[in-house]
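Thread title: Can someone regenerate the structure for this chain?

I was given the following input by a collaborator and told the matching C-alpha coordinates would be attached. They weren't. Posting the sequence so someone can regenerate them.
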Amino acid sequence: MFWTLPTLLTWARIVAIPLIVGVFYLPWPMAEVNLVASVLFVLVALTDWADGWLARRLNQTSSFGAFLDPVADKFLVCASLLVLLQLDRVNALVALIIIGREIAISALREWMAQIGASRSVAVHMLGKLKTASQMAAIVLLLYDAPLPLIGHAREWGTWLIYAACGLTIWSMVYYLQKALPDIRAKAR
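Best answer:
Regenerated them for you:
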Protein backbone atom coordinates (compact mmCIF):
# COMPACT_ATOMS: atom_id res chain seq x y z
CA MET A 1 0.00 0.00 0.00
CA PHE A 2 2.98 2.27 -0.56
CA TRP A 3 1.66 4.00 -3.69
CA THR A 4 -2.08 4.26 -3.07
CA LEU A 5 -3.96 7.51 -3.71
CA PRO A 6 -4.25 8.28 0.05
CA THR A 7 -0.51 7.70 0.54
CA LEU A 8 0.31 9.84 -2.50
CA LEU A 9 -1.74 12.67 -0.97
CA THR A 10 0.27 12.32 2.23
CA TRP A 11 3.52 12.44 0.24
CA ALA A 12 2.19 15.51 -1.59
CA ARG A 13 1.67 17.20 1.78
CA ILE A 14 5.32 16.62 2.66
CA VAL A 15 6.58 17.74 -0.76
CA ALA A 16 4.47 20.92 -0.57
CA ILE A 17 6.05 22.11 2.68
CA PRO A 18 9.09 23.69 0.95
CA LEU A 19 6.67 25.51 -1.36
CA ILE A 20 4.93 27.15 1.58
CA VAL A 21 8.27 28.14 3.10
CA GLY A 22 9.74 29.14 -0.26
CA VAL A 23 6.95 31.60 -1.00
CA PHE A 24 8.40 33.87 1.68
CA TYR A 25 11.64 34.15 -0.31
CA LEU A 26 9.97 35.41 -3.47
CA PRO A 27 10.42 39.08 -4.38
CA TRP A 28 6.70 39.77 -4.16
CA PRO A 29 4.86 42.27 -1.98
CA MET A 30 4.28 40.82 1.49
CA ALA A 31 0.49 40.92 1.10
CA GLU A 32 0.73 38.63 -1.94
CA VAL A 33 3.21 36.33 -0.22
CA ASN A 34 0.92 36.05 2.81
CA LEU A 35 -2.09 35.27 0.64
CA VAL A 36 -0.30 32.63 -1.44
CA ALA A 37 1.26 31.00 1.65
CA SER A 38 -2.05 30.84 3.50
CA VAL A 39 -3.92 29.44 0.47
CA LEU A 40 -1.18 26.84 -0.06
CA PHE A 41 -1.33 25.91 3.62
CA VAL A 42 -5.12 25.44 3.46
CA LEU A 43 -4.86 23.28 0.34
CA VAL A 44 -2.10 21.18 1.86
CA ALA A 45 -3.92 20.86 5.19
CA LEU A 46 -7.06 19.67 3.38
CA THR A 47 -5.10 16.70 2.03
CA ASP A 48 -4.86 15.52 5.66
CA TRP A 49 -8.62 15.11 5.75
CA ALA A 50 -8.79 13.78 2.16
CA ASP A 51 -6.15 11.08 2.55
CA GLY A 52 -7.83 9.61 5.63
CA TRP A 53 -11.28 9.75 4.06
CA LEU A 54 -10.04 8.14 0.84
CA ALA A 55 -8.10 5.45 2.70
CA ARG A 56 -11.25 4.40 4.54
CA ARG A 57 -13.56 4.82 1.55
CA LEU A 58 -11.31 2.89 -0.86
CA ASN A 59 -10.30 0.37 1.81
CA GLN A 60 -6.65 1.37 1.34
CA THR A 61 -5.60 1.84 4.94
CA SER A 62 -2.09 0.65 5.69
CA SER A 63 0.47 0.61 8.46
CA PHE A 64 2.72 2.79 6.33
CA GLY A 65 -0.05 5.34 5.77
CA ALA A 66 -0.85 5.35 9.48
CA PHE A 67 2.82 6.07 10.15
CA LEU A 68 3.35 8.68 7.42
CA ASP A 69 0.18 10.74 7.99
CA PRO A 70 1.08 12.14 11.42
CA VAL A 71 4.68 12.66 10.29
CA ALA A 72 3.43 14.84 7.43
CA ASP A 73 1.21 16.80 9.83
CA LYS A 74 4.08 17.41 12.22
CA PHE A 75 6.40 18.54 9.41
CA LEU A 76 3.74 20.94 8.13
CA VAL A 77 3.01 22.44 11.55
CA CYS A 78 6.66 22.68 12.62
CA ALA A 79 7.84 24.23 9.33
CA SER A 80 5.01 26.76 9.41
CA LEU A 81 5.70 27.66 13.04
CA LEU A 82 9.36 28.24 12.22
CA VAL A 83 8.37 30.58 9.37
CA LEU A 84 5.96 32.41 11.67
CA LEU A 85 8.64 32.65 14.34
CA GLN A 86 11.06 34.18 11.84
CA LEU A 87 8.37 36.65 10.79
CA ASP A 88 7.74 37.50 14.47
CA ARG A 89 4.11 36.42 14.21
CA VAL A 90 4.28 33.75 16.89
CA ASN A 91 5.85 33.73 20.33
CA ALA A 92 9.00 31.59 20.64
CA LEU A 93 7.71 29.88 23.80
CA VAL A 94 4.46 28.93 22.06
CA ALA A 95 6.39 27.50 19.10
CA LEU A 96 8.70 25.61 21.46
CA ILE A 97 5.79 24.12 23.41
CA ILE A 98 3.99 22.99 20.26
CA ILE A 99 7.09 21.58 18.54
CA GLY A 100 8.36 20.03 21.78
CA ARG A 101 5.03 18.30 22.37
CA GLU A 102 5.03 16.90 18.84
CA ILE A 103 8.48 15.41 19.36
CA ALA A 104 7.67 14.10 22.86
CA ILE A 105 4.38 12.45 21.89
CA SER A 106 5.90 10.97 18.72
CA ALA A 107 8.67 9.45 20.83
CA LEU A 108 6.14 8.22 23.40
CA ARG A 109 4.05 6.57 20.67
CA GLU A 110 7.11 4.91 19.20
CA TRP A 111 8.18 3.58 22.58
CA MET A 112 4.66 2.43 23.44
CA ALA A 113 4.51 0.55 20.12
CA GLN A 114 7.81 -1.17 20.98
CA ILE A 115 6.43 -2.40 24.30
CA GLY A 116 3.15 -3.48 22.70
CA ALA A 117 1.00 -0.80 24.31
CA SER A 118 0.24 1.52 21.40
CA ARG A 119 -3.51 1.44 22.17
CA SER A 120 -2.94 3.49 25.30
CA VAL A 121 -1.70 6.44 23.21
CA ALA A 122 -4.08 6.09 20.26
CA VAL A 123 -5.28 9.33 18.72
CA HIS A 124 -7.96 10.96 20.87
CA MET A 125 -10.48 13.69 20.07
CA LEU A 126 -8.44 16.10 22.21
CA GLY A 127 -5.49 15.60 19.87
CA LYS A 128 -7.71 16.20 16.85
CA LEU A 129 -9.06 19.41 18.41
CA LYS A 130 -5.48 20.52 19.11
CA THR A 131 -4.53 19.90 15.49
CA ALA A 132 -7.58 21.74 14.13
CA SER A 133 -6.91 24.80 16.32
CA GLN A 134 -3.22 24.81 15.33
CA MET A 135 -4.09 24.62 11.65
CA ALA A 136 -6.68 27.41 11.87
CA ALA A 137 -4.28 29.61 13.86
CA ILE A 138 -1.44 29.03 11.39
CA VAL A 139 -3.65 29.96 8.42
CA LEU A 140 -4.65 33.22 10.09
CA LEU A 141 -1.08 34.04 11.13
CA LEU A 142 0.24 33.30 7.64
CA TYR A 143 -2.49 35.49 6.09
CA ASP A 144 -1.80 38.43 8.43
CA ALA A 145 -4.26 40.87 6.86
CA PRO A 146 -7.61 42.46 7.69
CA LEU A 147 -10.61 40.14 7.52
CA PRO A 148 -13.98 41.56 6.45
CA LEU A 149 -16.27 42.35 9.40
CA ILE A 150 -14.25 40.54 12.10
CA GLY A 151 -10.91 42.31 12.45
CA HIS A 152 -7.33 41.39 11.67
CA ALA A 153 -6.22 37.83 10.93
CA ARG A 154 -3.12 38.17 13.13
CA GLU A 155 -5.21 39.05 16.21
CA TRP A 156 -7.51 36.06 15.69
CA GLY A 157 -4.55 33.84 14.86
CA THR A 158 -2.71 34.91 17.99
CA TRP A 159 -5.69 34.08 20.21
CA LEU A 160 -6.12 30.76 18.45
CA ILE A 161 -2.44 29.82 18.69
CA TYR A 162 -2.56 30.47 22.44
CA ALA A 163 -5.66 28.27 22.66
CA ALA A 164 -3.84 25.65 20.56
CA CYS A 165 -0.88 25.90 22.95
CA GLY A 166 -3.20 25.21 25.88
CA LEU A 167 -4.73 22.24 24.03
CA THR A 168 -1.21 21.08 23.18
CA ILE A 169 -0.26 20.93 26.85
CA TRP A 170 -3.60 19.39 27.84
CA SER A 171 -3.37 16.67 25.18
CA MET A 172 0.23 15.89 26.14
CA VAL A 173 -0.79 15.45 29.78
CA TYR A 174 -3.71 13.28 28.64
CA TYR A 175 -1.48 10.98 26.55
CA LEU A 176 1.13 10.74 29.30
CA GLN A 177 -1.56 9.82 31.85
CA LYS A 178 -2.95 7.16 29.51
CA ALA A 179 0.53 5.71 28.97
CA LEU A 180 1.61 5.80 32.62
CA PRO A 181 0.09 2.44 33.68
CA ASP A 182 1.82 0.66 30.79
CA ILE A 183 5.06 2.50 31.47
CA ARG A 184 4.92 1.45 35.14
CA ALA A 185 4.11 -2.14 34.21
CA LYS A 186 7.08 -2.37 31.82
CA ALA A 187 9.45 -0.66 34.26
CA ARG A 188 9.11 -3.50 36.76
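The helical segments are 5-23, 30-57, 63-86, 92-114, 125-143, 153-187.
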